[in-house]
Design a protein that fits this description.
By secondary structure, the chain is α/β, with parallel strands linked by helices. 39% of the residues lie in helices and 18% in strands. It has helices at 12-23, 55-65, 79-84, 86-106, 140-159, 190-198, 226-241, 259-270, 295-300, 309-321, and strands at residues 2-7, 26-32, 47-49, 69-72, 111-117, 162-168, 170-172, 205-208, 220-221, 223-225, 247-251, 257-258, 276-279, 288-289. The chain starts with a strand and ends in a 6-residue tail after the last helix. Bound molecules: nicotinamide-adenine-dinucleotide and galactose-uridine-5'-diphosphate (GDU). Pathway: Carbohydrate metabolism; galactose metabolism.
Length: 327
């Protein structure tokens, strides 16, 4: 079995990636400090507790498992927090990734798959966001991810660290088999917050801004199902295994949904009222982030077939209603 080192494997996307890797015949080795992850989400392979900044521990883990590739999910990823406290984003995300890359190169593990984000594009009205678009992040989270992308390019030039960078749009949904799902503490993402409000687990949802320059005044995002997203990562590992060169891929569907449209679809799926009120804008939010690229489909053969809004909300709702969610 081929080992893949999965940093952040105890988190939302990382745990789904471990499942997909295991189904594809790999052994996912989770490396996580559990700052936002969950021990009971590590179900599909060995677990190593450690921090990205702990070079000694990383060296031990690389030596023990000799992974063929790294899948790097571990990061802090809250836009609002990154505006209030940018230092922890530069330290955890950028410095942590630097330590990880140095350990990978030292261990001669030269294939690296990285979780980046559409937040690196920032506010670019009326621009089709493809992989060649300029990157002007407007929050420290996006800036930290852009910096890691730049480090990867330098590490390839100097040390041969080949990489696939995935710039995700908004990830949603849950494993359709219910083994893993989304659980952030605190939760900041629209869909789980809304399902909590519907279920009476928290107060009404607040719409962050109704005066954006969009048809209904609320922000527009491109949502992608987490299981489709992690399928792309398995294809990314195979891409590198096949000796193909470093590449950047957007992972989105190209369809944008406003906050009000997501609320409406949730009402349809759950057949319940969505309690919400209207509030001011949230610092760091872009008006519209929608992918304008089909590169992942054309070159990787990626098919985001589960990524309809109905399916994402249904799968998230099933996870919400399962006992697993109430940790
Ligand atoms: N959720 C989204 O919509 C979205 C969109 C774009 C990009 N991303 C990126 O995808 C990745 C995963 O996101 P997620 O939603 O699963 O987040 P998450 O918080 O659920 O998972 C992150 C995991 O990384 C671990 N971690 C963080 N810092 C660490 C460190 N220094 N050392 C070891 N482990 C550490 C956490 O404990 C957690 O298990 C992140 O890099 C995020 O920036 C997420
Ligand atoms: O209570 C809420 C929560 C969210 N929103 C709105 O819903 C949309 C989606 O917000 P999320 O917080 O769910 O996600 P973001 O768009 O902020 O996503 C950003 O953060 C993610 C990581 O958490 C990813 O990195 C992603 O690429 C990046 O754009 C935004 O317009 C936001 O303003 C609300 O109106 N009310």
């Amino acid at each position: 079995m081929t080992n893949i080192l999965v940093t952040g494997g105890a988190g939302y996307i990382g745990s789904h990636a471990c499942k997909a890797l295991s189904k594809a015949g790999y052994t996912p080795v989770t490396y996580d400090n559990f700052c936002t992850g969950w021990r009971d989400a590590v179900k599909f392979g060995p677990c190593e507790e450690g921090d990205l900044s702990d070079r000694t521990k990383l060296d031990e883990v690389f030596a023990r498992y000799q992974p063929a590739a790294v899948m790097h999910f571990a990061a802090l990823s809250q836009v609002g927090e990154s505006m209030r406290d940018p230092g922890i984003y530069w330290r955890n995300n950028v410095e942590g990734s630097l330590t990880l890359m140095e350990a990978a190169v030292e261990a001669e593990c030269f294939d690296f798959v990285f979780s980046s984000t559409c937040a690196t594009y920032g506010e670019q009205d009326n621009v089709v966001l493809d992989e060649g678009s300029a990157q002007f992040p407007i929050n420290a989270y996006g800036a930290s991810k852009r910096a890691i992308e730049e480090m990867l390019r330098d590490f390839e030039a100097a040390h041969g660290l080949r990489h696939v960078i995935f710039r995700y749009f908004n990830v949603a949904g849950a494993d359709e088999e219910g083994e893993v799902g989304e659980f952030h503490q605190p939760e900041t993402h629209l869909i789980p917050l809304m399902l909590d409000a519907i279920d009476g687990k928290r107060d009404a949802l607040t719409i962050f801004g109704t005066d954006y320059d969009t048809p209904d005044g609320t922000c527009i995002r491109d949502y992608v199902h987490v299981m489709d997203l992690v399928d792309a990562h398995v294809l990314g590992v195979k891409w590198l295994e096949d000796g193909k060169g470093s590449r950047v891929f957007n992972l989105g569907t190209g369809s944008g949904f406003s906050v009000r449209e997501v609320i409406e679809e949730s009402r349809n799926v759950t057949n319940r009222t969505v309690p919400y009120n209207e509030g001011p804008r949230r610092a760091g939010d872009c008006t519209k982030l929608v992918s304008g690229s089909r590169r992942a489909e054309l070159e990787l053969g990626w098919q985001p077939e589960r990524s309809t809004m109905k399916r994402m909300i249904s799968d998230a709702w099933r996870w919400h209603q399962s006992g697993h969610y109430d940790r």
